[in-house]
Amino acid sequence: MPKVIDHDQRRREIVEVAKKLIAEGGFEAATMRSIVTAAGFANGALKHYFDGKDGIIAATFQSVLQETERRVSTLDPGATPLEALHGFVEAAMPLDSHRITSARVLLVLWEHSVANPELARQYRELLTMWRAELTTRISAVLGDVPSDAPTVGVLADEIISVTIGANVASLMHPVGELVVRYNAYIDGLMKRIAG
Description:
The chain is an all-alpha fold and 195 residues long. 72% of the residues lie in helices and 0% in strands.
């Protein structure tokens, strides 16, 4: 009886290998040969799961974006509006080694997405979703200010910009070195919005 192979699981394994290679050595480190070797597959086996390197890179990019979305979506539904906003911002910041590694992979793939319209589209969609969610959460904290008010949009754009900047800056420091500063920023931001 032939062995049953879970193709989706194999794709996830390949993506995890690609993430690790990219995090450790950049985009150039994730060659088809290095991926197949690190995944423990025979030469040519990747073609059963992906059309080529672009398919692996697109799946890797999507995986990192989905990890961020999952962190955000698992927030406590019973939280106060301020707690919900705090949790949302915290989920996108590089506050642990896993998120810092994800930021490293995302940063490498951002550069690649400049020349890849599909990756650029996925990232724009994520930013659009983040901004919409942030404006909703900020508006809920403010109470009587609608989510489409200019002040709410400015705060949402600030948070997105700081989050992106924090992810980039975290790559230039030893893992976790900036966590105290980032938590202080989040706490100060919450006081500013609530107060």
